[in-house]
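// run 5 | inverse folding | seed 20
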């Protein structure tokens, strides 16, 4: 059996407005991970790109946690790990870097230890580490996913829209951990706000399934998390409005932020520039990247 494997995992944008902790889309931005299982003790780590000099080479690393989960469940005897990463997904920005890291570790270790686990089982394991399924599901499966937790199990729907669209991700220079962005959320919400989100989420999935993209504008509205996170992201309201004024189909916070996302079928560059400009007016440096839907999810490279 080989003791080294390389996998590629997409970044993901979660929530998509109202679908908090449920909706996610795999995006064409990727991390590559090469995992080697060794006989010598210890963890060796090389990182190129995002997170270089910052990602820890110890048990606190989520890739290590994911790999060890598979090794423990399969009774594998490897003593040490070598991890080589080439990362394009920015850390703690709302594009699913932690989900990509977890999924990369699980998929690579599963492949090296004899493929004991199905994609569904890997999804259960990834959700147990990440805490919510909305990023890890599209990272594993590609496409658009709706995931729910039922009695500790993940149930999901995965689909591709019948028409193409672009996603303009505007990535500010500062980071915001998902943990910090979840701390500001309330324990309870007013009943009308819950109704507001139920109707928008239903409309969002309907619009994406049928290709009725003009419905995205109202379907991306949210009252469950974005208003509470807005104070953490200077200029958020203006940046989202700038996207719509520049012709976006709709705009929303990406995951827990601070990245902001516009959906577009044309003028993607103009939309990106307008959003960056609105961040700049709020003294935040930012860049934009035009993404499409990744259809494959995590893949084995070699
Ligand atoms: N390639 C990676 N290897 C190890 N840990 C990573 C990697 N990418 C992200 N992480 C961990 O995930 C954290 C960011 O996760 P999170 O706050 O959920 O933001 P997001 O998933 O939106 O990027 C990082 O601070 C780091 O601890
Ligand atoms: N539903 C989660 C999604 C977090 O996504 P991330 O890409 O920011 O990790 C949340 O909104 O907290």
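// decoded
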């Amino acid at each position: 059996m080989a003791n080294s494997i390389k996998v590629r995992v997409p970044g993901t944008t979660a929530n998509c407005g109202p679908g908090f902790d449920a909706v996610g889309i795999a995006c064409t931005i990727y991390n590559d991970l090469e995992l080697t299982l060794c006989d010598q003790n210890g963890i060796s780590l090389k990182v190129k790109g995002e997170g270089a000099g910052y990602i820890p080479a110890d048990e606190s690393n989520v890739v290590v946690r994911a790999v060890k989960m598979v090794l423990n469940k399969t009774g594998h005897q490897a003593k040490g790990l070598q991890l080589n990463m080439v990362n394009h997904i920015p850390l703690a920005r709302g594009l699913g870097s932690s989900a990509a890291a977890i999924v990369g570790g699980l998929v690579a270790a599963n492949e090296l230890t004899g493929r004991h686990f199905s994609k569904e089982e890997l999804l259960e394991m990834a959700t147990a580490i990440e805490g919510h399924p909305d990023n890890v599901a599209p990272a594993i499966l590609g496409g658009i996913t709706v995931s729910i937790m039922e009695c500790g199990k993940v149930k999901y729907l995965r689909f591709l829209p019948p028409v193409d669209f672009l996603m303009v991700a505007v990535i500010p220079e500062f980071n915001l951990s998902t943990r910090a962005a979840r701390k500001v959320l309330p324990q309870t919400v007013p009943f009308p706000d819950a109704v507001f989100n139920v109707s928008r989420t239903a409309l969002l999935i309907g619009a994406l399934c049928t290709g009725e993209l003009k419905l995205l504008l109202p379907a991306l509205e949210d009252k469950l998390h974005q208003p509470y996170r807005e104070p953490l992201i200077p200029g958020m309201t203006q940046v989202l409005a700038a996207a719509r004024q520049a012709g976006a189909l709709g705009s929303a916070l990406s995951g827990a932020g601070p990245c902001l996302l516009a959906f577009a079928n044309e003028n993607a560059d103009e939309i990106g520039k307008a959003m960056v400009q609105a961040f700049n007016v709020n003294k935040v440096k930012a860049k934009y990247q035009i993404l499409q839907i990744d259809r494959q999810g995590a893949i084995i490279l070699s």
